[in-house]
Amino acid sequence: MKISEVKIKAANDFDNKVEAFVQLVLDEEFALHDLRIIKRDDGSTFLQMPSRKMQDKCPNCQAKNYVKARYCNWCGKELANFRFKTDGEGRPILSADIFHPITREARAWIQKEVFKVRDYHLKGGN
């Protein structure tokens, strides 16, 4: 597998931790959208894979709502707090991966290729 194309778009103050949004094309056949370059508090960066917010159903009308929602988007009924599941360490699970590398080596390879393009553009490349 090869990365055929990398597109990077600056976040423009979308979030102070999101530096840029990334789109990848693999083998000129698959497009991956919504990867993000994230700035950590220590100034380092990492590539975040695309994910979706977790949802559950309203007990009153069965409409889907994000697990952090306080009121149902459909019927307006107040929803219970803390409806999210937790991981093995007790942290709330608020999102689920849509795409992710299986091995550390694959993650490192993707991140290296994306950062190579990002660094080229930061140095004034086209």
**CATH class call of the largest domain:** Alpha Beta
Q: What is the third-level CATH name, the topology of the largest domain?
A: Arylsulfatase, C-terminal domain
Helix/sheet category: alpha+beta
Low-confidence stretches: none
Q: Portion of residues in helices?
A: 10-25%
Q: What is the CA–CA distance across the termini?
A: 25 Å
Overall 3D geometry?
elongated
The CATH level-2 architecture of the largest domain is identified as 2-Layer Sandwich
Assign the CATH superfamily of the largest domain: Stage V sporulation protein G
Strand order within the widest beta sheet: 1-2-3-4
Count of domain modules: 2
How many helices? The count is 1
In total, the number of strands is: 8
What is the ordering of alpha helices and beta strands? EEEEEEEEH
List the quaternary state of the chains. Answer: single chain
| Radius of gyration of CA atoms, rounded to a whole number | 18 Å
Q: Please describe the biggest sheet, giving its number of strands, its sense, and whether it closes into a barrel.
A: 4 strands, antiparallel
What does this structure look like?
- With 126 residues, the chain is α+β, with helices and mostly antiparallel strands.
- The protein folds into two domains: 1-50 and 103-126, Stage V sporulation protein G (Arylsulfatase, C-terminal domain); 52-97, no CATH class.
- Helices cover 15% and strands 34% of the residues.
- The chain is built from one helix and eight strands.
- The protein has one helix spanning 104-122, and strands at 3-10, 18-26, 30-39, 45-48, 51-53, 55-57, 64-66, 95-97.
- The strands form three sheets. Strands 1-2-3-4 form a four-stranded antiparallel β-sheet, with helices on one face. The chain has a two-stranded antiparallel sheet with strand order 5-8. It has a two-stranded antiparallel ribbon with strand order 6-7.
- A hairpin with a 6-residue loop joins strand 6 (55-57) and strand 7 (64-66).
- The chain is elongated, with a radius of gyration of 18 Å.
- It starts with a strand and ends with a helix.
